[in-house]
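Researcher: We plan to redesign the surface later, but first we want a full-length starting point. Tokens attached.
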């Protein structure tokens, strides 16, 4: 890594999270492979250091559980990045299991068909078969109202610190200069193009900019003179006038110490487990009081943040609105820490579905635990040019699952040919009636 900013460069990647690191690495590698340059043509700027934002506090899960078909191709591309060097990136390809109730069976069937169409290996279990499958993996499992199970074979998870370290190594290996402590404060523009970035460490002229700043995208959007509201028309015909461009959600995740083996019946590291039952209440294990009227929870084996055996999981994020205090970020921000209610809920759900996980509330790791995501108008990524030479990766909280975006973008930038997998995520979809989901959607995942 270098501390001295160059006066000019060909490519500037802003943001040292999953997308910035992946884009910088793949851009340097692709330039070299195509004989059009090298990592010396690429710099990465981060106002703190790589992994300091949402990437560093994420649960690190990779899954293809989406109702929106174009997302499936992006995730498949991303799995290819994870398996490029799974040891370096710490990727545990244990699979991903999503569980739903009877009302969700049609959605599960559609997702399964889409997975099959792109040769993304998954299995679907419905009704009694779903319950049998879960109890075969975990004999102590209590299915409750689960009637649908989708088992993705290629999903899994990675420890965030290990992943960031691996990505930085790949950038360094291909000659990318990473500049930490450099904050972009403004943009110099002429004729619809950014000509230079003004930073706290000086001005850098550039030919092309990739914005991958996660929760801080709203700030850069404003600096580039973009509107904070827009009219959105969805594929189902619904529309919203003057919708907020960015909506912030507080993510709730945490860890539980667990000193017994957390394994499947055949003694393997279990798949990541996701359970969504909208009409199944969660009772408090000690007094039966209803903690929540529905189940939305996920967990996996974890040791990185515990330094010993344990589990890490999360629940439905909490909507904040169009404004949020982003600095300091994550665990350092007093405004957005997960409270005791989250710990009660997570551990109650664990014990509700697995007998071996009952009584873990006392084992919850009490620590600062906060993160914020900036979501787009339809809660799915925007991957598009927002100025003639500025490409925006706004992941809408789907970071780890989409490491392949950087690879696809690098190919597009170097070859000059649009990548088909990126086209559905153009910004123009909002005015063309192609926004994903519906104007009636109440949750941030579609």
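Model: Full-length starting sequence:
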């Amino acid at each position: 890594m270098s501390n001295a900013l160059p006066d000019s460069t060909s490519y500037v990647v802003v943001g040292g999270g999953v997308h910035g690191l992946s884009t910088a690495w793949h851009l340097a590698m692709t330039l070299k492979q195509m004989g059009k340059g090298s990592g010396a043509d690429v710099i990465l700027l981060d106002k703190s250091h790589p992994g300091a934002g949402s990437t560093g506090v994420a649960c690190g899960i990779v899954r293809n559980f989406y109702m929106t078909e174009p997302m499936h191709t992006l995730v498949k591309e991303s799995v290819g990045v994870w398996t490029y060097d799974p040891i370096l990136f710490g990727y545990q390809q244990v699979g991903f299991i999503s569980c739903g109730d009877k009302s969700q069976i049609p959605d599960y069937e559609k997702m399964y068909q889409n997975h099959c169409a792109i040769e993304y290996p998954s299995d679907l279990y419905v009704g009694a078969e779903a319950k049998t499958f879960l109890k075969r993996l975990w004999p102590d499992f209590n299915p409750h109202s689960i009637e649908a199970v989708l088992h993705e074979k290629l999903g899994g998870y990675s420890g965030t610190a290990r992943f960031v370290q691996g990505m930085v190594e790949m950038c360094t290996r291909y000659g990318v200069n990473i500049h930490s402590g450099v904050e972009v404060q403004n943009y110099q523009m002429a004729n619809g193009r950014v000509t230079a970035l003004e930073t706290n460490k000086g001005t850098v002229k550039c030919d092309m900019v990739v914005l991958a700043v996660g929760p801080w995208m709203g700030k850069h959007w404003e600096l580039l003179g973009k509107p904070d509201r827009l009219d959105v028309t969805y594929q189902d015909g619904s529309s919203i006038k003057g919708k907020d461009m960015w909506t912030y959600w507080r993510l709730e995740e945490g860890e539980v110490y667990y000193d017994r083996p957390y394994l499947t019946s055949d003694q393997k590291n279990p798949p990541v487990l996701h359970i969504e039952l909208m009409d199944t209440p969660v009772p408090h294990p000690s007094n039966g009081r209803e903690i929540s009227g529905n189940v939305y929870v996920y967990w996996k084996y974890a040791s990185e943040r515990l330094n010993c055996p344990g589990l890490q999981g999360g629940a439905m994020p909490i909507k904040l609105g169009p404004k949020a205090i982003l600095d300091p970020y994550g665990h350092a921000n007093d405004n957005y820490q997960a409270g005791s209610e989250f710990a009660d809920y997570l551990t109650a759900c664990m014990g509700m579905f697995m007998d071996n996980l009952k009584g873990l509330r006392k084992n919850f790791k009490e620590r600062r635990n906060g993160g914020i995501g900036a979501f787009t108008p339809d809660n799915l990524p925007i991957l598009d040019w927002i100025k003639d030479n500025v490409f925006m990766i706004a992941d809408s909280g789907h970071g780890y699952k989409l490491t392949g975006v950087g690879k696809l973008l690098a190919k597009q930038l170097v070859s000059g040919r649009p990548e088909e997998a990126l086209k559905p995520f153009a910004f123009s979809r909002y005015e063309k009636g192609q926004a994903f989901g519906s104007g009636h959607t109440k949750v941030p995942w579609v």
